[in-house]
UniProtKB/TrEMBL annotation:
Gene3D superfamilies: 3.40.50.140, SWIB/MDM2 domain, Topoisomerase I, domain 2, Topoisomerase I, domain 3, Topoisomerase I, domain 4
Name the UniProt record assigns to this protein: DNA topoisomerase
InterPro entries xrefs: SWIB_domain, SWIB_MDM2_dom_sf, SWIB_MDM2_domain, Topo_IA, Topo_IA_2, Topo_IA_AS, Topo_IA_cen, Topo_IA_cen_sub1
A Pfam family matched in the record: Toprim_Crpt
DM2 domain: residues covered: 886-962
Similarity comment: Belongs to the type IA topoisomerase family.
Ranges of biased composition (kind: Low complexity): 856-875
Origin superkingdom: Bacteria
Annotated TM spans: none
The keyword Metal-binding belongs to this UniProt entry's keyword annotation: yes
Amino acid sequence: MSKTLVIAEKPSVAQDIVRALTPVAGKFDKFEDHFENERYVVTSAVGHLVEIQAPEEFDVKRGKWSFAHLPVIPPRFDLKPVDKTKSRLNAVVKQAKRKDVTALVNACDAGREGELIFRLIEQYAGGAKGTLSKPITRLWLQSMTPQAIRDGFANLRSEQQMQGLADAARSRSEADWLVGINGTRAMTAFNSQGGGFFLTTVGRVQTPTLSLVVEREEKIRKFVSRDYWEIHGTFAAQAGDYLGKWFDPQFKKSDDPEARADRLWNAQAAQQVADAVRGKPAIVTEEAKPSTQASPLLFDLTSLQREANGKFGFSAKTTLALAQALYERHKALTYPRTDSRALPEDYLPTTRQTFEMLANSGMGHLAPFARQALDNSYVRPTRRVFDNSKVSDHFAIIPTTQAPHGLSEAEQKLYDLVVRRFMAVFFPSAEYQITTRISKVEQHSFKTEGKVLIQPGWLAIYGKEAASETEDGKAGDKGQPLVAVQPGEHPLAEQVNPKGLKTKPPARYSEATLLGAMESAGKQIDDEELRSAMQEKGLGTPATRAAIIEGLLSEKYMLREGRELIPTAKAFQLMTLLRGLEVNELCKAELTGEWEYKLAQMERGELPRASFMQQIAAMTERMVKKAKEYDRDTIPGDYARLATPCPNCGGVVKENYRRYACIGKDGGEGCGFSFGKSPAGRTFETAEADALLRDKRIGPLEGFRSKAGWPFTAEVAIVRDDEAPGRYKLEFDFGDDKAEEGSSAPAEFTDASLGPCPLCGSEVHEHGSNYVCSRAVPTPAHPTPSCSFKSGKIILQQPIERAQMEKLLATGKTDLLDKFISNRTRRAFKAFLAWDKDAGKVNFEFEQRDSKYPPRKTAAAKTGAAAKTTAAAKKAPAKKAARKTSTAAGKTPSPALAAVIGDAPVTRPEAVKKLWEYIRAHNLQDPQDKRQIVADDKLRAVLGQDRIGMFGLAGVLGAHLA
């Protein structure tokens, strides 16, 4: 019997579909990856299982990113599985290819991304043909109630009806790939022309978002604070005192954005007003009117992230992770990755069930309000809450009918936030009495505002927080009740004083305000059609905005300081480049608006997909062409001047796009001194460049990248260039040489001792980029070093704080440190640093974990184990003895090696160690790259070459140890 395969986007939706279909289609059997009955097979993805990629013959791997290979505009796109979900993809494809499955139902989320997820899976399952050639229909759901699901199956949409949406989904995905890949490679190629690898990522959403942060920072830096004065008065009435603030009733808005009705720009004028009214009676007029305040709407993901950031300081990424855990693991919240703030119109019964659960739960701080809502029939249909037209792929985030248990503190905070908002939206509006009092003294007016809460309504749910509970988490109007003024009474202006203040620059973005700016980016667009297209879109989607912000942080375009997001020099450099190249489409939200407008046309069948993709290809080619043709040294920008003068001529050192260069004392040609702004792909902040020029050394700094693209940490020094007398160059110092210890100037320690040296018991101090024994470097008291203890302040990119080194010296081991980066795999790992007495140095010690599973024994191992035991036992003592003798005796060095390390027998590790002692003693490391060894005559006889990498040393010793 033929069956229909239903593919949902998430396992939870697949389960909902099975529950809804069981009464009408029969019971389903549950298998590992699907459900099945006589009519249907129901399975699910877990989001995107397949992603697009350029065909192998058209793609260029990293390391060969150059203008010669750009632009990359493949004639078609191949597909590749998402690594993390490959097993799930295989399970879905297996069901799709079944011979008894004769039709498919796309039950992924009702939207563009849901359409794309299904279409890519179906194409991948079709193999070389690109399709399974099985009929496809579309289940379109905005509500997940059983009846809504059954109604959806009764009204499945045809593949032809969904073709426009499918075309728009593919086009958006491919256009993002073309712009992101070509933009990133073109800007990286442009910035890497001088050598090295300067990764410069750009994207349709990422770069306009960064532009918002950079433009705000530019306004802050250019802001010139102005003095202004307010006039505050205390008025004495019979019932008591009240405060008032002077204002100009004739004030009208002007071109001055800082002008306000209650500001004066002249101290003398402010003092004159204060003197004129002080001690004089006022004529009082009052206007009182009632006011109501409705509760905020239900949460979508962005508003939840903003609220959680403002209240608890949670990052957008943290909030999403918590909401996802409450949805997946605890089943306590509905699907969080939503941009809707309303519920489906058939969701009222489920809403009442949720209130019943809350009212009967053990959550004492929430249950009484849920009971109050039920007893007073607050839960009723309202277009503000239940509106199908305002529900997109998913509805608003609300609690489910399942009471949660075992929540962490952070999960409980977020759950409470959602529950309070959910209940509040059904409660009555808060009612206020707002009074505006005008006290007129002579010709001068003072305003006093009072606000009295008459009925708390929904604010009762928030208790003490009610005064500041508003939609955006900002402080509300905290006006206080006013003392009464009797009819005909003239209160005296007893104390009247001007208050000097300064205008403030705009605030930096926090994650909450940046999420809001991303959400409303379309409102800043002048073009009406583009603004309409972006009205519900903004920059990114609720599901991707947190990842966009985290990506900008990880690429070091922004830093997080407290709750503020601060753009780095790398961000300013990127914006300078894009503006200079006139690649404005990557800087502004208009690009997203234009795409959304055309994709909406495509969804309606008004714009062919081929036409849109031709436009994207043309834009990509233009962007790459601009970068290819532009001269790096002529990119205009608002460049900084350093405070430290040129070390050659004392002239001014000014920034340009690539370098900091001397422009002479009068801003002319300069003496030729300069140094690069972005060595190894890391851009200096202006303050760092100034410190480097002043002190000739800075660091250790993180964020550098090797030519192969791997990150590394190093100090940077300005040194004289021996090949160009009078010139300077930048040099990396990895902290692995003896420059500090062998310096002609004795070390003088100014810091407190960290503890006793584990080798000799002397004091350990900070010295350059290391922690060293006080007897390991020349000092006035001990000119000749007698100890070798040294440990880096940064090891495999993990900073080693003083407190950790103190702990190691006191106890033998640090805390578990979690930011080590393997040089081989480039992956992070955790380890303790511990003193290894046998090796005489600091080594890694890894966390001991109980094995969850015993070692697996193969059948062959079991069978042959007994037979081998006897023979092995006989051979083992002889082998062990031979190995011990060989190790103890060592091997005789060849004459060439003996000339370097002596002729005593040595093991290979001992030979390597002695070889390094010779190399360091004779200063044979390449000063440009400490990992390269430059051989002298003796060493050349051993190596057989003039240069060798440090990891190649051990390899050449075998031939020299007999």
